[in-house]
């Protein structure tokens, strides 16, 4: 069942519904290929069709929702090639982020990244999926702040939105989380301690290359395990 109805507070309703629907998609409440029926969502979230349509448009920009002619919105279905393409772009962007941080971050920004890595021993390694998500988001906020490049930050934010589903898959696996943390430690050492731009780029690219390979494997495994929704009505 969907996560729940919205609460009435100052944040625009469309943002609340978009957040709830995003969580439901990432949690598997709505499976890849499943039709997103407006009537069902209006009832589930307790809002009008107008609000639902605005939320769907927002998630369409994030590529979590695809609108098909004569069928309407569905949860986006990606191929292995689609996932690989997104991760190729992510690898290049995050490699650049590591390089720029090592070159341009202030000592205070380097210290902040180091401090956050220490905090991640609890929030990430021994945390919940939710705290792991929050810790990883904060890691990237600090890394990107140190680059001083707003264009890179905006582009990488868009890529991260497209791969939110695969990032969550990885955060469920404790073994992968431990390995990921060691990769992050290597990134921080290169970017914030030794301040080696080439090594920082290489460490970032290595981290994403592994993540991309695992994302393809896990997504295909889950698709094979789930019933088909392409013809759902």
From TrEMBL:
<dbReference type="InterPro" id="IPR008920">
    <property type="entry name" value="TF_FadR/GntR_C"/>
</dbReference>
<dbReference type="Pfam" id="PF00392">
    <property type="entry name" value="GntR"/>
</dbReference>
<protein>
    <submittedName>
        <fullName>GntR family transcriptional regulator</fullName>
    </submittedName>
</protein>
<dbReference type="InterPro" id="IPR036388">
    <property type="entry name" value="WH-like_DNA-bd_sf"/>
</dbReference>
<dbReference type="InterPro" id="IPR036390">
    <property type="entry name" value="WH_DNA-bd_sf"/>
</dbReference>
<keyword id="KW-0238">DNA-binding</keyword>
<dbReference type="InterPro" id="IPR000524">
    <property type="entry name" value="Tscrpt_reg_HTH_GntR"/>
</dbReference>
<dbReference type="Pfam" id="PF07729">
    <property type="entry name" value="FCD"/>
</dbReference>
<feature type="domain" description="HTH gntR-type">
    <location>
        <begin position="11"/>
        <end position="78"/>
    </location>
</feature>
<keyword id="KW-0805">Transcription regulation</keyword>
<keyword id="KW-0804">Transcription</keyword>
<dbReference type="InterPro" id="IPR011711">
    <property type="entry name" value="GntR_C"/>
</dbReference>
